[in-house]
Amino acid sequence: MVGTESDAEALTNLKRELSTAVAGGVVLAFVELLSLARPAALKRALRLRRYVLELALELGLDGESSAPIEAAALLSQVGSLTLPEATATRYYHGATLSPADLDLVEQLPATAADILRHVESLRETREILLGQSERFSSGRGRRPRHGSRIPLGSRMLKIAHDFDLLEAQERSVEFALSTMRGRGGWYDPELLELFARLRGASEVRTQIKELRLRNLRAGMVFAEDIRSATEGVLLIARGQEASAKLIERLNALPEGLVAEPVRMLVRERTDRGSDGDDGDAGSDSR
Question: Which of 246, 283, 251 has its CA nearest to residue 267?
Fold first, then answer.
């Protein structure tokens, strides 16, 4: 979904915009292909386009500068046509991806870039796609670079893509951003914080902590499924918020029934001028 538009409305408006854009006919052809062959891929591409355009607006990029980044977002999912159907289903519907799935997904931007290698008008877009898998601090990718040597559009698109993938899996903006903030060196930190503010997450810092049951507090969110240690029976599903009554019931269970510590998403209000460390007892994992 793009804004409040339906998917059909978003696609119609996009076609209208692309009809007059430089290289718009090529991009539109691939958009049409995705709409027929892999509709879920097109939905993701439209979301990625919205995310990078929001970032571009906040950064003050003009239309000429943002056009190749927008095209890269729209074309980033073209490589999904090469995915095995089972992998594509997991990728686009929020299921857990296996290591083999992740390897295939990481290759998607490069696959799209290879498909576009003969389209001279999309050369800059192709460079953005080739840089999407690179990590900000480690220079890991098809063309190892790091920091500001990675194209700005690549850094923007990596944040947009990984957020969309994680949000689909976790069903939570906060989960997605917390995971991304915990991936040291993966993303441009300034861009990531700007993106977080655009997602409405500027006033609350979230962390995943390992806690003992006695340290749980109402309002925390379970970051993993909680199962019985003996038979593996699901007791609490990942993503459920802890209430006072639920915490009371957990602490009343026989000792050892639940493996400790448990991973919890902890939200902490941040004050300007504070380092954010509130020394709360909830951080005790011993």
Answer: 283
Smallest CA-to-CA distance from 212 within 275, 263, 273, 137 is with 263
For residue 167, give every residue at least 6 positions away whose Cβ sits within 8 Å of its Cβ, in sequence order, or none: 173, 175, 176
Mean pLDDT of 4-14: 59
Domains of the chain, by residue range, sit at: 7-198, 204-283
From the list 122, 130, 120, 177, the residue with the least C-alpha distance to 150 is 130
Predicted pLDDT of residue 18? 59
Helix (H, G, I), strand (E, B) or coil at 189: helix
* Architecture field, domain 7-198: Orthogonal Bundle (1.10)
C-alpha distances out from residue 57 to 28, 51, 152, 271, Å = 23, 10, 13, 27
- 3 state DSSP class of 262: strand
Q: Which two tokens stand for residue 284?
A: 């005790």
Question: Is residue 31 a contact partner of residue 18, using CB atoms and an 8 Å limit?
Answer: yes
Rounded distance, CA 164 to CA 206, Å?
18
3-state secondary structure of 266: strand
Each residue of 23-59: pLDDT tens digit? 567 888 888 888 889 999 999 999 999 899 899 988 9
For helices 63-75 and 39-59, what crossing angle results, to 10°? 160
Q: How confident is the model at residue 21 (pLDDT cuts 50, 70, 90)?
A: low
DSSP string, 230-261: TT--EEE-TTPBPPHHHHHHHHTSPTTSB-SS
| Range 135-149 average pLDDT | 71
pLDDT tens digits, residue range 173-186?
888 898 898 888 89
Helices (H), the chain: 7-18, 24-37, 39-59, 63-75, 85-92, 99-106, 108-115, 123-131, 152-170, 173-181, 189-198, 244-251
Give the pLDDT of residue 89.
Answer: 92
pTM of the entire predicted model: 0.66
